[in-house]
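Q: Inositol-1-monophosphatase, please. Structure only.
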Amino acid sequence: MADPWESTMDHAVAIARKAGETSSHVPVCFRFIGEESVAAGESCILSDSPTWIIDPIDGTTNFVHTHLTVTSTLDLQVEFGVVYSCIEDKMFTARRGRGAFCNGEPLQVSQQKAVEQAIVATEFGSDRDPEVVDKIFQSLRNVLCLPVHGVRGAGSAAMNMCLVASGCVEAYYEIGVHVWDVAAASLIVSEAGGVLMDVEGGEVDLMSRRIIAANSKTVAERLVKTIVAFSPPRDDAAPSDRCEDSTHLSARKV
Ligand SMILES: O=P(O)(O)O[C@H]1[C@H](O)[C@@H](O)[C@H](O)[C@@H](O)[C@@H]1O
Ligand SMILES: [Mg+2]
Ligand SMILES: [Mg+2]
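A: Structure for Inositol-1-monophosphatase:
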């Protein structure tokens, strides 16, 4: 069987060559956006150049506490998405227009559109500002009282989205995520037949740090009416306008 990773890399190089209109003799030029490089002061701006968006560990708090799910995410903007759940040894992959897979098996979102029968995943995030925490709890209360069948959280944004793609949960929403948390899994959700939406409706903007990933427009729109929206500093804001999340500081001290 052909190695899917090798064909992915061949395709990535072809995309980079096309973008840069380089001949096969010239090395290709990829750009990178990674959680750690941005934390070290590098830019978080998407350009026309093919860009790998990387989160080496998604679910850092789980990792630090050796708790359940930890994933690594890799995305070549809009072309490929890879999320690896290392403890479960599950490799979620998607290529634009070619479907989404887990360890090679095709993924399909749940067909359940009644929100009362839905499991909704979310996270409490990393911000401990009491005003932010209040809004997160207001949203959670509203979602529970829709009512939904259940609320869950894997502790990894990427894993929550892969659960939507797998049909195990109907929707995931969060305000406070970063582009590297959700880029790869966004493609996996849409290639599995799901939808992505901003928490106030309309198209999702991966730099806005707000996301709904759902099995259907119907479920996503019910959540839009329910979530108490706010806008954290964008990922592509100037470094001086970004703020460090409090739990990440403590996680890094470990
Ligand atoms: O910091 P990591 O572990 O890469 O990512 C975390 C997000 O920053 C946080 O918003 C989210 O709640 C958590 O699930 C996530 O994966
Ligand atoms: Mg992450
Ligand atoms: Mg991370």
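A: Brief note, in case it's useful. The chain has one domain: 32-254.
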